[in-house]
Amino acid sequence: MARITRKELKTDKFALEVEQGLTFFEEHQKEVLRYGGVVLGLVALYFLFSIYLRHQHTNREAALARAIQIQETSVGPAAPGAATTFPTQQVKDDVAIKAFTEINSKFSGSEEGEIAQYWIGSIRADEGNMSAAAKSFQEVAQKGDDRYASLAKLSLAQVYLAQGNLDSGRKVLEDLIAHPTMFVSKDQATIALARALIPTKPEEARKLLDPIRTRSDSVGEVARTLYGQLPAK
Description:
Elements: H1 6-11, H2 29-35, H3 39-42, H4 44-54, H5 59-72, H6 89-106, H7 111-127, H8 130-143, H9 146-162, H10 166-178, H11 186-197, H12 202-209, H13 218-227
Helix pairs in contact: 5-6, 5-7, 6-7, 7-8, 7-9, 8-9, 9-10, 10-11, 11-12, 11-13
């Protein structure tokens, strides 16, 4: 399985529009189609990051924002007058994991604790440790509220797919299609499932894409692009 790098993660920024329940395809369709995989769920973290930088009203939110800022810190030698950096990615990951783990432990059961656990999963996935990533996402999926649980399920499905476990990934995505949320729309889950089915079950992917590929919005455009990857009948 190819490793998903943070560089790739950041080129695929999450254009989630909560009020309308739209998907992340609006501005970065090419990157989404190129990278796919676990990144489809993990980019949602940048949406959450923006929320907590704007609304630091409690100690929990402030602690989470500080931990996320660690994750956003650059790696490599610091230029004169530049902000703090970490010498290596591993050092940064270790510090970030420690910060998120402390939040999850101290504020267990809170939204901040759920999001911290989600971030831990994303870091582990980025490291290529998919078993640890799945464990973190499963915890949020089982204990979090509908919004964060749905994000965790989407990421969990992508982990399963990255591991070659199509049946488990499909089961999770079909559940998301049947039970969309503010953070994960039916369209988003449908596109993710169709993409996963193209290599081995193209006719099933075709059935998923047919109803949405005629739409004039960005979701329709992504569906048409995926449709073009299907083998000819």
